[in-house]
Amino acid sequence: EPLLVATDLRKTYGRTPALDGAELTVRAGEVVAVMGPSGSGKSTLLHCLAGIVTPDSGEVRYRGRQLSAMSDGERSALRRTDFGFVFQFGQLVPELTCLENVAMPMRLAGRRRKDAEALAATWLDRLEVADIAGQRPGEVSGGQGQRVAVARALVGDPRVVFADEPTGALDSLNGERVMRLLTEAAHDTGAAVVLVTHEPRVAAYSDREIVVRDGKSRDMERVS
Ligand code: ADP
Ligand code: ADP
């Protein structure tokens, strides 16, 4: 059984249609790039898959369970235990060091500081940013900050990482470095990645590409 299955998703904001029959299947461990022009519904699709936005109709099943049938508490618990998130920017807590940022999800899950920070340190090392562990997000480069964000998304061993334009604020060299490290780490841990991007060079790191146009997406519109 696939990990995530979205069927005939429809979502309208006021009179603006964001999704108009979108479909997507994500299998365990695969990296899927969701492509398409600005405003085509990519972010809304990702938010529906992650249970952040409820579609007007259609359904999302995660490991066989319909997200809309869960309570808000169950959905937020699922996001903490099974999902990781990377966004374009602004996701790190500015008052915390990079190490503390990566340790935070585990601290919130009740892990002891020492254990959480030891594991966070191994993830910073894996993402090739061990040297900035003690610095705050405002003191590091955009590419370093995104690698810290990737470490934080992966530290809880999620089954799915949702990444919305994770390289959107980076130059192409740093963007490709983030994508290489993200996809290598995901393949190592077996996490699936749902990657929203409008950049073909970023999508090239995926196993599969899906195109969204005017709120419609189909798995069969597979490009590779
Ligand atoms: P993309 O990620 O492809 O740029 P989005 O999913 O962000 O597309 O947006 C799809 C359409 O829905 C756009 O017209 C956008 O302006 C609109 N939209 C998205 N989110 C909201 C929202 N929270 N409120 C109102 N309109 C929204
Ligand atoms: P992206 O660049 O990933 O497409 P956007 O900048 O379109 O993302 O949207 C960022 C956030 O703002 C999202 O949570 C989206 O739902 C919301 N949003 C997008 N378009 C609108 C809109 N027209 N009105 C209100 N909120 C919107």
TrEMBL record:
Domain ABC transporter: 4-223
InterPro entries associated with the record: AAA+_ATPase (IPR003593), ABC_transporter-like_ATP-bd (IPR003439), ABC_transpr_LolD-like (IPR015854), MacB-like_ATP-bd (IPR017911), P-loop_NTPase (IPR027417)
Annotated Gene Ontology cellular component terms: plasma membrane
TM stretches of this protein: none
PROSITE patterns: ABC_TRANSPORTER_2 (PS50893)
Pfam families: ABC_tran (PF00005)
GO molecular function: ATP binding; ATP hydrolysis activity; transmembrane transporter activity
Lineage: superkingdom: Bacteria
Name of the molecule in the record: ABC transport system ATP-binding protein
